[in-house]
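Appendix B. Raw example, untouched.
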Amino acid sequence: MPHSLLNDERGLQRRIEELGPWFHNMRLGKVQTAPQHFLGDYPEVKFRNFREALPADMTGLSVLDIGCNGGFYSLEMKRRGAARVLGIDTDERYLNQARFAAEVTELDVCFKQMAVWDVAQLRERFDLVIFMGVLYHLRHPLLALDLIHEHVAKDMLLFQSMQRGSDEIVPVAEDYEFYEPAPFDEPGYPKMHFIERRYSHDETNWWVPNRACVEAMLRSSGFAIEAQPEKEVYVCRWKPVAVPPDGAHCVYPSQSGR
């Protein structure tokens, strides 16, 4: 049985290396999956700054972890007693790592290959949706937030995105006249920085927001910010979104003309 590897440090190390490289550093028995991570003991080093912002007892709750990677947060939520935890990712290598970690630790977590664009297929809403470290890897980030709000979020959203630029937030008026100066060039105006080629040697980095942009996008998509327990981390609550005069928010790309 896989969990017997916990008593076989050499065999466990060999299996971890076979499934590597790992982005999540997890402790499986006495072995770490990514002890030389460039961010240190990641994601534990980040999680310890906001772990108290989540319910310590999640008995009976359901959790969806979008972009689950090696499953660190999925397993942590199961340890808190969540009744159902589903982790989704597009990378089969990460999913194999997550499944192995769940087997070794004997935690009942389900993992599925799925992109955020397809979450409507789940036909299920979750008490907690985790959406961390994904937004800046997407070509259509606002659509992703709309899809999450429309189809899978029921109450709480745990959100994180890499941020660059100013941490300031400038007051934004409800409206501006066409020829009236607006604070577009102010450092604290909501901005998304587009990456045409690569950032940090990664061709999957597409958009990097500043703090004002992150918070504006969350509000616009129907997520009320309740807390910011860590610099880039937000705890939000789902709320209804009013339909604007030009129609409902775009939750699916147009399929016309195909």
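End of appendix B.
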